[in-house]
Amino acid sequence: MSIDGEMNLTVTHIRKTFQNNSASKTILRDVSFAVESGQFVSLVGPSGCGKSTLLTIIAGFQESTAGEIRLNGGIVSRPGPDRGFVFQEFALFPWMTVRENILFPMKQMKIPRPDQTERLQKLLSMAQLEDSEHLYPSQISGGMKQRTAVLRALAGDPQVLLMDEPLGAVDHQMRQILQEELEALWMKNRTTVIMVTHDIYCELA
Asked: Would you report the helix, strand and coil content of the chain in percent, each value rounded to 5?
C-alpha cells in the first residue's frame, strides 16, 4: 500500500525484442504499470517470461525496443543512484568487510565522510548487523549476506530498490526465513521496492 499516494515510477508500453541473425524474439510486449512511493511490488512469473529483462530496463542496464520508464517525471535511460539493485547472488565484494561493502556506493557518490558514518550506523542498526560489520562475506551466513546486499543497495538512499530473485538461490525453508528478514527491513525503511520472483508464495505485506 502507498505511504503518501505520490506516484514515483511509471512503466509505459514497454516492448523488448531480441534480434538473432535474421530471427527476432519479443520477450516483453506492451507492458504498463505504475508504482507509488513506498509500495512493495512483485513481478511474478515463470522463468524466461521477461521479468528480469524488465527489471534491468527499469535499472537502466539495457534499453527497451519501445516504450518508456519515468521516475518522478524524468525518463530513465541509464543506471543512476536513484535506483538500487540487488542481484540474486548478492554480488558482495569478497575482499571487503560488511562495513566496507556498505560504504562502497557512498564513497563512489562522494558523500561527505560524516554523512557516510551516520548512514552506515543507521543501516547496520536497522539490519542488526552492528556486531558483524568487520566480518567478510565468507564469515557470515546466507541471511546476513542478503541483508548486507540490501543495505549496500540502500546506502546511496535510492528512490527505488530493484531486487532480482533475491531468494532464488536458497531452499524453501531458508527462503521463508529470508523473506521474513526482507519484510522486516522494508517495514523499517519503506523504500519503494520492485522484486522479481517466480515464487507465487513470496509475498511481502
From this structure: 35, 25, 40
One DSSP character per residue, 41-94 reads EEEE--TTSSHHHHHHHHHTSS--SEEEEEETTEEP-S--TTEEEE-TT----T
Structure confidence by residue, pLDDT tens digits, 139-169: 998 888 888 988 898 888 888 999 988 766 5
In sequence order, the 6+-apart residues with CB closer than 8 A to the CB of 3 are 36, 37, 38, 190
Which residue is associated with the grid cell 561527505? 112
What backbone phi and psi angles, to 5 degrees, belong to 92? -75, 150
User: What's domain 7-197's architecture?
Assistant: 3-Layer(aba) Sandwich (3.40)
Give every CB contact of residue 19 below 8 A, 6+ residues apart in sequence: none
116 membership: H or E segment, kind and range: helix 113-126
Cell of 166: 533475491
